[in-house]
Write a structure and sequence with these properties.
Elements (H helix, E strand, L loop, with lengths): L1 H27 L12 H26 L13 H35 L1 E6 L3 H12 L5 E7 L9 E2 L2 E5 L4 H8 L3 E4 L6 H14 L2 E4 L3 H5 L8 E2 L2 H4 L9 H8 L3 E5 L4 H12 L4 E6 L2 H14 L1 H5 L3 E6 L5 H11 L3 E4 L6 H5 L2 H21 L4 E7 L8 H20 L3 E6 L1 E3 L5 H10 L4 E3 L5 E2 L1 E3 H14 L5 E4 L5 E2 H11 L10 E3 L17 E5 L5 E6 H15 L1 H5 L3 H37 L3 H11 L6 H15 L1
Parallel strand pairs: 1-2, 1-5, 2-4, 5-6, 8-9, 8-11, 9-10, 11-12, 12-13, 13-18, 14-17, 15-20
Antiparallel strand pairs: 3-4, 6-7, 16-19, 18-22, 21-22
Length: 643
């Protein structure tokens, strides 16, 4: 009893000292400003650091201050600070995490009673995020019941209390046993084939399916808030395209960049991505005032660089066919880099408006490259189309002529002008996807010309990233072709869209085959026969090399490297090599002169509105051009005239 009385005062001193130290440390580490209902690993770590720090300080003060100062007798038990630290950890941590457990159990009880059961496809980082958010937000009315994942090490493991119950092939069994009413696809980087298989399985099981857009979109916000219905882009999902952002930034940062056709699908995405690299000024040029107004308004209100004032934006309403107007624009804006996306692209409309297709796609491009050369533009990148290869339509042949205009200017003037050629992009104006969606919305039928017709597809952001990369790679005169992957059957695209709309082909919406339109290709091409496709330094970009140029280069190289020239022997053979190379050079020069002559007359015919003569000159410039509809019409006209 006397010992207890003797230790009463020291115990009070130790307790008050410990209390002051712990309160100070806990306050400094913000232990009292945390919502323990949402406690996680971060809170556990902070709490451990706080208790350990306060414990160490208490031990130091106990042995270095209180005992030497006589405030605590030497006979006072040395174990007291250690016992105090253990009790502090248990009490402080236990109380706080008890709060977290109470809320967690109450949320799960509410979920199990009122919400729908959810199966999550993909037991990775994204799937983990989905489970945490669903658990933290019972008002969403969704309870995660199980994962499926093809990774063997994850089988029958638990993530946030949810078991990985099987592989993707087990979806049907798990849905049936557990009464799943919705499937969330949490695999933002998986291939489109996997997405299609999961969506098809859900369709057969009559359960809804939703997906996560992509990893970078998830990181920019709530994973659950970005859950959406599976789209056609998900079904066609391609590998993630990586580009050398450092080299793109080096090209664009601090430069005055002009985008023609800035209000179009490709042009507007070019503006968005270029702005990220902080050019000195972004000049958005277009003929349609509404589309330019829209992209300018978006850049001002949604782009961080615009809001911060890091990039100056300039809008220009101009027609690239108007040489005088474009001269004023070039003199005023002084662009250093030009991305040329302005063009007429609607195939059907151009068939009946040949003069306008020529003046816009050919004359407009010629104006731009000539002015760009005159004003010493550092780089010009023209956007072309796979329809320019062995063209069977007016749009395609005018784009091919525009390619040659850029290449000719690059060769004659030694300018760093390049062409980038690629196929269809999802979501662009006039693409089949919005047409099919509208037909489905109206009850069908979905019209397709032929069951075997196929096309290349890629997303607009992917195409633009590769265009920017090609701009870095180009030195002048190259035609770059983007790796479009495998062609996709249009009928498969239509069937996927019908399924995604929650309908069935044959019962709700029919597919009707109307027959190939004259001039329509069964399959698009990316290269001419005379072009050799070579891999560039980027795995997703090819560079086309013209056979004639290769032969000329080889002939000159062979003549220069022939050892007989230096040895003075067999001079006739060496002279023959040189004659052959010079003949090739003269042929190329004659082709260039003939090209210039035909272009001049083509533009005269187009300006005068002569569709027939314009079409004949297009065939003279591009021998591979074959348009059966126009050829037959011209034949009928000629027969009538002769009669």
């Amino acid at each position: 009893m006397s010992d207890t009385a003797a230790f009463g005062t020291p115990l009070l001193v130790v307790t008050l000292t410990s209390l002051v130290i712990k309160l100070s440390v806990f306050y400094a580490l913000h232990i009292y400003n945390r919502v323990w209902r949402y406690a996680s690993v971060d809170e556990i770590g902070t709490l451990a650091i706080a208790t350990l720090s306060s414990w160490i300080v208490c031990i130091v003060v106990f042995f270095a201050v209180l005992k030497p100062a006589g405030l605590v007798p030497m006979s006072y038990p040395n174990s007291i600070p250690f016992i105090d630290g253990i009790l502090t950890m248990l009490l402080v941590g236990g109380v706080r995490f008890a709060i977290r457990l109470v809320y967690a159990f109450s949320e799960r009880r509410i979920d199990n009673v009122t919400s729908k059961k959810v199966l999550i496809v993909g037991a990775g980082v994204t799937g983990s995020m989905i489970v945490k958010e669903l658990r933290s937000n019972p008002q969403l009315g969704m309870t995660p019941v199980a994962f499926v994942d093809d990774a063997l090490p994850k089988q029958h493991m638990y993530i946030h209390g949810v078991e990985v119950m099987g592989r993707l092939s087990d979806i049907a069994v798990i849905v049936d046993i557990h009464g799943i009413s919705e499937v969330i696809i949490a695999m933002p980087t998986v291939s489109g084939k996997v997405i299609r298989d999961v969506v098809q399985a859900c369709k057969e099981l009559k359960v809804k399916s939703k997906t996560i857009p992509g990893v970078y979109e998830i990181l920019s916000g709530s994973a659950v808030s970005q859950l959406r219905e599976v789209s056609i882009e998900d079904l066609l999902r391609r590998d993630i395209v990586t580009v050398d952002e450092d080299s793109i930034e080096k090209l664009i940062s601090g430069a005055r960049v002009m985008v023609t056709g800035a209000g179009g699908s490709i042009g507007s995405e070019l503006c968005r991505q270029i702005a990220r690299f902080r050019p000195k000024e972004l000049i958005m040029l277009g003929h349609g005032e509404n589309s330019i107004f829209t992209i300018h308004n978006e850049m001002k209100t949604q782009q961080g660089v615009a809001i911060s004032g890091a990039v100056k934006f300039k809008t220009v309403i101009a027609d690239i066919r108007d040489r005088e107007r474009m001269e004023h624009v070039m003199e005023e804006c002084k662009p250093q880099i030009i991305f040329h996306a302005a063009a007429h692209k609607h195939v059907g409309l151009m068939e009946t408006n040949i003069p306008d297709a020529v003046t816009n796609n050919v004359l407009g491009t010629q104006n731009l490259v000539e002015l760009a050369a005159l004003h010493r533009v550092q780089k010009l990148v023209m956007i072309s189309s796979d329809k320019a290869v062995n063209p069977m339509c007016v749009m395609g042949v005018t784009k091919r002529v525009a390619e040659l205009v850029v290449g000719d200017a690059a060769a004659r003037r030694k300018c760093p002008f390049v062409v980038v050629r690629f196929g269809n992009v999802l979501g662009s104006r006039g693409s089949v996807v919005p047409i099919f969606k509208n037909q489905i919305r109206n009850g069908g039928p979905v019209t397709i010309t032929h069951p075997d017709v196929s096309r290349y597809f890629m997303t607009i952001p992917e195409a633009v990233r590769l265009v920017l990369q090609a701009g870095v790679l180009g030195n002048g005169g190259e035609t770059f072709v983007l790796d479009m992957g495998e062609p996709i059957k249009i009928v498969d695209l239509a069937r996927d869209l019908i399924r995604l709309s929650g309908l069935q082909e044959g019962n709700d919406v029919d597919i009707k085959f109307t027959g190939l339109i004259e001039g329509e290709k069964m399959h698009e091409e990316l290269f001419y026969e005379h072009e050799q496709a070579m891999r560039s330094s980027h795995e997703k970009i090819f560079v086309c090399v013209n056979d004639s140029a290769l032969k000329l280069k080889a002939a000159f190289s062979d003549a220069a490297a022939d050892p007989r020239a230096d040895a003075g022997t067999d001079t006739e053979a060496h002279a023959e090599l040189r004659r052959e190379s010079l003949k090739l050079a003269r042929d190329l020069e004659r082709e260039r002169e003939e090209f210039s002559f035909n272009i001049e007359h083509l533009l005269i015919a187009a300006r005068s509105g002569d569709s027939d003569y314009s079409n004949e000159l297009l065939k003279a410039i591009i021998p591979q051009y074959f348009n059966p509809a126009l050829d037959r019409l011209n034949g009928m006209v000629n027969i009538g005239v002769l009669a």
